[in-house]
Amino acid sequence: MCHDPAGRPPAPPRTGAVGDTGQIVLTAADGTEFSAAYALPADVAAATAGVVVLPDIRGLHPYYVALVERFAEAGVPAVALDWFGRTAGTAEGGTRDAGFDWQTHVPQTTPEGVDADLAAAIAELRRRTRPGLPVVTVGFCFGGSHSWRQSGGDLDVAACAGFYGRPVLVGDAASRASRPTLMLIAGADAATPVEDQLALAGTMRGAGADVTTAVYDGAPHSFFDRAAPEWEDACQDAWRRLLDLVDRAGSGVSS
Question: Which strand ranges, in their side-by-side order, compose the sheet holding 33-41?
Answer without folding.
Answer: 18-27, 33-41, 78-81, 50-54, 135-140, 159-163, 181-186, 211-216
